[in-house]
Design goal:
Lipocalin; 10-stranded antiparallel sheet
Length: about 160
C-alpha cells in the first residue's frame, strides 16, 4: 500500500504549488491607499500644475477601481471604473461638461490604462487622453497624454507618495 501512495503524493504535491504560482502571476498590484503629489519628482510641464490632482485616494476592488481626487482648485471628484471596458461618465468643470472614461489592465497585469474624453460645453473644448497608472514600491506613477482642441498635445508625468 505504501508503494502506491508514494507515487500519488509525488504527483499531487506539485499541484498546490502550481496553483499558487499561477495565482501570483495573474494577480494585479494593489493601488489602494491615499497618495499625495510629489511635485519635485513629477514632470508637470506648463499645464500639469493646473491638471495633476494634488491628492488621490484609491479603492481597488476585484472588478473595479474608485478614485477620489482632490484637484489643484480644491474641487473633489469621484470616479469608479470597471476593468471590463464599460464607460463611466461624470460631470466636470462645475457641471458644464462631462468626462467619459474606460479602463483596462495591461497585458502583463502590472498597470492599467484609462482612456477618456472630456467635453467642456461652456468653453466649447474637447480633450482626449490616455492615462497609464503604475505602482513601483511606495510610488504611484500616473502618466497622462492629453490632446486638447485649445491647448494642443502635451504629457503630464505625476508621481505620488503613499501617505
Amino acid at each position: 500500500m505504501k508503494k502506491f501512495l508514494i507515487p500519488v503524493k509525488k504527483i499531487l504535491l506539485p499541484a498546490p504549488i502550481i496553483l499558487v504560482c499561477w495565482a501570483l502571476l495573474t494577480d494585479h498590484p494593489n493601488f489602494s491607499g491615499e497618495w499625495k503629489l510629489n511635485k519635485t519628482k513629477s514632470e508637470l510641464g506648463d499645464f500639469g500644475s493646473r491638471l495633476a490632482v494634488t491628492r488621490v485616494k484609491i479603492i481597488q476592488y476585484k472588478d473595479s477601481i474608485t478614485f477620489i481626487k482632490t484637484h489643484p482648485n480644491g474641487e473633489i471628484s469621484n470616479e469608479t471604473l470597471s476593468y471590463d471596458g464599460k464607460e463611466s461618465v461624470r460631470p466636470v468643470t462645475q457641471g458644464t461638461g462631462k468626462r467619459t472614461s474606460t479602463a483596462k489592465w495591461s497585458e502583463d497585469g502590472q498597470s492599467f490604462t484609462i482612456n477618456f474624453v472630456i467635453n467642456n460645453y461652456g468653453a466649447g473644448q474637447k480633450t482626449t487622453g490616455i492615462q497609464t497608472i503604475t505602482l513601483k514600491g511606495d510610488k504611484l506613477y500616473i502618466e497622462t497624454s492629453y490632446s486638447s482642441s485649445q491647448q494642443g498635445d502635451f504629457i503630464v508625468k505625476a508621481v505620488y507618495d503613499k501617505q
